[in-house]
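Researcher: Structure for this, please.
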Amino acid sequence: MPPAAAEPLTPERILETTEEVLRRFGPTKATVVDVARALGVSHGSVYRHFPSKAALREAVTDRWLTKSVAVLEQITSAPSEPAPSKLESWLEALFEAKRKKAGADPELFATYTVLLAENSGVVDQHLAELIEQLSRIIGEGVAAGSLTAPDVPAAARAVFDATGRFHDPQYAADWLSPDITAEFEAVSALVVRGLRA
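Model: Predicted structure, C-alpha coordinate format:
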Protein backbone atom coordinates (compact mmCIF):
# COMPACT_ATOMS: atom_id res chain seq x y z
CA MET A 1 0.00 0.00 0.00
CA PRO A 2 1.51 3.36 -0.99
CA PRO A 3 2.24 5.93 1.72
CA ALA A 4 -0.20 8.75 2.37
CA ALA A 5 -0.10 11.36 -0.38
CA ALA A 6 0.07 14.14 2.23
CA GLU A 7 3.52 12.95 3.33
CA PRO A 8 6.13 15.17 1.61
CA LEU A 9 8.37 13.59 -0.98
CA THR A 10 11.91 14.09 0.28
CA PRO A 11 15.21 12.65 -0.94
CA GLU A 12 15.49 10.66 2.30
CA ARG A 13 12.02 9.13 1.82
CA ILE A 14 12.90 8.24 -1.77
CA LEU A 15 16.15 6.60 -0.65
CA GLU A 16 14.41 4.57 2.07
CA THR A 17 11.82 3.37 -0.42
CA THR A 18 14.49 2.60 -3.01
CA GLU A 19 16.20 0.38 -0.45
CA GLU A 20 12.95 -1.55 0.03
CA VAL A 21 12.42 -1.84 -3.73
CA LEU A 22 15.98 -3.09 -4.19
CA ARG A 23 15.45 -5.65 -1.44
CA ARG A 24 12.24 -6.84 -3.09
CA PHE A 25 13.31 -6.91 -6.76
CA GLY A 26 17.11 -6.93 -6.70
CA PRO A 27 19.45 -4.53 -8.48
CA THR A 28 18.85 -5.85 -11.99
CA LYS A 29 15.04 -5.68 -11.93
CA ALA A 30 14.35 -2.65 -9.71
CA THR A 31 13.32 0.45 -11.66
CA VAL A 32 12.56 4.08 -10.90
CA VAL A 33 8.95 3.29 -11.84
CA ASP A 34 8.90 0.63 -9.08
CA VAL A 35 10.19 3.20 -6.60
CA ALA A 36 7.61 5.77 -7.71
CA ARG A 37 4.82 3.19 -7.49
CA ALA A 38 5.88 2.25 -3.93
CA LEU A 39 5.83 5.95 -3.02
CA GLY A 40 2.48 6.55 -4.70
CA VAL A 41 3.89 9.25 -7.00
CA SER A 42 4.84 9.57 -10.67
CA HIS A 43 8.35 8.58 -11.73
CA GLY A 44 8.81 12.21 -12.81
CA SER A 45 8.50 13.19 -9.14
CA VAL A 46 11.39 10.90 -8.28
CA TYR A 47 13.44 12.32 -11.15
CA ARG A 48 12.98 15.84 -9.74
CA HIS A 49 15.12 14.73 -6.79
CA PHE A 50 17.44 12.32 -8.63
CA PRO A 51 18.03 13.10 -12.33
CA SER A 52 18.65 9.48 -13.38
CA LYS A 53 18.42 5.89 -12.23
CA ALA A 54 22.22 5.91 -11.89
CA ALA A 55 22.10 8.98 -9.64
CA LEU A 56 19.47 7.33 -7.46
CA ARG A 57 21.48 4.13 -7.15
CA GLU A 58 24.62 6.14 -6.37
CA ALA A 59 22.78 8.06 -3.63
CA VAL A 60 21.49 4.81 -2.09
CA THR A 61 25.02 3.40 -2.10
CA ASP A 62 26.43 6.56 -0.54
CA ARG A 63 23.73 6.54 2.16
CA TRP A 64 24.50 2.93 3.03
CA LEU A 65 28.24 3.53 3.26
CA THR A 66 27.84 6.77 5.23
CA LYS A 67 26.09 4.89 8.04
CA SER A 68 29.26 2.86 8.66
CA VAL A 69 31.50 5.94 8.67
CA ALA A 70 29.36 7.72 11.30
CA VAL A 71 29.70 4.89 13.84
CA LEU A 72 33.44 4.64 13.24
CA GLU A 73 33.84 8.41 13.57
CA GLN A 74 32.51 8.20 17.14
CA ILE A 75 35.32 5.78 17.98
CA THR A 76 37.91 7.86 16.10
CA SER A 77 36.91 11.02 17.96
CA ALA A 78 36.68 9.50 21.45
CA PRO A 79 38.99 11.75 23.51
CA SER A 80 39.90 9.51 26.44
CA GLU A 81 40.66 6.12 24.87
CA PRO A 82 44.36 5.43 24.18
CA ALA A 83 45.20 5.00 20.50
CA PRO A 84 46.06 1.25 20.63
CA SER A 85 42.70 0.47 22.27
CA LYS A 86 40.93 2.86 19.93
CA LEU A 87 42.50 1.13 16.93
CA GLU A 88 41.34 -2.28 18.20
CA SER A 89 37.83 -0.90 18.82
CA TRP A 90 37.69 0.69 15.37
CA LEU A 91 38.74 -2.50 13.59
CA GLU A 92 36.25 -4.54 15.60
CA ALA A 93 33.41 -2.08 14.92
CA LEU A 94 34.11 -2.12 11.19
CA PHE A 95 34.14 -5.93 11.10
CA GLU A 96 30.98 -6.22 13.20
CA ALA A 97 29.13 -3.64 11.09
CA LYS A 98 29.97 -5.43 7.84
CA ARG A 99 29.22 -8.87 9.27
CA LYS A 100 25.92 -7.69 10.71
CA LYS A 101 24.84 -6.17 7.39
CA ALA A 102 25.74 -9.35 5.53
CA GLY A 103 24.01 -11.65 8.02
CA ALA A 104 20.92 -9.63 8.92
CA ASP A 105 19.81 -8.88 5.38
CA PRO A 106 21.71 -11.04 2.86
CA GLU A 107 19.51 -10.00 -0.08
CA LEU A 108 20.14 -6.31 0.49
CA PHE A 109 23.83 -6.95 1.15
CA ALA A 110 24.10 -8.78 -2.19
CA THR A 111 22.33 -5.86 -3.84
CA TYR A 112 24.79 -3.41 -2.33
CA THR A 113 27.69 -5.52 -3.54
CA VAL A 114 26.37 -4.99 -7.09
CA LEU A 115 25.83 -1.27 -6.46
CA LEU A 116 29.32 -0.89 -5.01
CA ALA A 117 30.78 -2.23 -8.25
CA GLU A 118 28.73 0.31 -10.23
CA ASN A 119 29.66 3.29 -8.09
CA SER A 120 33.43 3.17 -7.83
CA GLY A 121 33.68 6.92 -7.15
CA VAL A 122 31.40 6.63 -4.12
CA VAL A 123 33.33 3.59 -2.94
CA ASP A 124 36.69 5.31 -3.40
CA GLN A 125 35.46 8.25 -1.32
CA HIS A 126 34.21 5.86 1.38
CA LEU A 127 37.53 4.02 1.51
CA ALA A 128 39.41 7.33 1.69
CA GLU A 129 37.25 8.36 4.69
CA LEU A 130 37.96 5.07 6.48
CA ILE A 131 41.69 5.31 5.86
CA GLU A 132 41.64 8.95 7.01
CA GLN A 133 40.06 7.82 10.29
CA LEU A 134 42.76 5.20 10.71
CA SER A 135 45.40 7.87 10.00
CA ARG A 136 43.98 10.06 12.74
CA ILE A 137 44.03 7.21 15.26
CA ILE A 138 47.57 6.15 14.36
CA GLY A 139 48.74 9.78 14.27
CA GLU A 140 47.27 10.32 17.72
CA GLY A 141 49.15 7.25 18.97
CA VAL A 142 52.41 8.43 17.41
CA ALA A 143 51.98 11.86 19.04
CA ALA A 144 51.30 10.23 22.42
CA GLY A 145 54.21 7.81 22.06
CA SER A 146 52.02 4.68 22.25
CA LEU A 147 52.32 3.81 18.53
CA THR A 148 55.12 4.14 16.03
CA ALA A 149 54.83 4.74 12.31
CA PRO A 150 57.37 6.67 10.21
CA ASP A 151 54.67 7.33 7.59
CA VAL A 152 51.24 7.57 9.23
CA PRO A 153 49.12 7.57 6.01
CA ALA A 154 51.06 4.56 4.67
CA ALA A 155 50.60 2.76 8.00
CA ALA A 156 46.87 3.49 7.92
CA ARG A 157 46.58 2.08 4.41
CA ALA A 158 48.59 -1.00 5.44
CA VAL A 159 46.33 -1.62 8.44
CA PHE A 160 43.25 -1.31 6.21
CA ASP A 161 44.70 -3.68 3.62
CA ALA A 162 45.94 -6.19 6.22
CA THR A 163 42.45 -6.49 7.72
CA GLY A 164 40.61 -6.60 4.38
CA ARG A 165 39.34 -10.14 4.93
CA PHE A 166 37.19 -8.77 7.75
CA HIS A 167 35.56 -5.85 5.94
CA ASP A 168 35.79 -6.36 2.18
CA PRO A 169 32.40 -7.66 0.92
CA GLN A 170 34.12 -10.19 -1.34
CA TYR A 171 34.94 -12.16 1.84
CA ALA A 172 31.37 -12.11 3.21
CA ALA A 173 31.02 -15.89 2.93
CA ASP A 174 34.03 -16.28 5.26
CA TRP A 175 32.24 -14.24 7.94
CA LEU A 176 29.89 -17.18 8.59
CA SER A 177 32.78 -19.41 9.70
CA PRO A 178 32.69 -20.38 13.39
CA ASP A 179 36.41 -19.53 13.57
CA ILE A 180 36.15 -16.05 12.06
CA THR A 181 36.06 -14.17 15.38
CA ALA A 182 39.23 -15.89 16.61
CA GLU A 183 40.90 -15.24 13.25
CA PHE A 184 39.90 -11.57 13.39
CA GLU A 185 41.21 -11.20 16.94
CA ALA A 186 44.54 -12.78 15.97
CA VAL A 187 45.02 -10.48 12.97
CA SER A 188 43.87 -7.40 14.88
CA ALA A 189 46.22 -8.12 17.79
CA LEU A 190 49.11 -8.69 15.39
CA VAL A 191 48.45 -5.40 13.58
CA VAL A 192 48.23 -3.37 16.78
CA ARG A 193 51.29 -5.08 18.26
CA GLY A 194 53.24 -4.23 15.11
CA LEU A 195 52.44 -0.53 15.57
CA ARG A 196 53.21 -0.31 19.29
CA ALA A 197 56.12 1.95 20.19
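Researcher: Any notable elements?
Model: The chain has a mean pLDDT of 90. The two ends are 60 Å apart (CA to CA).
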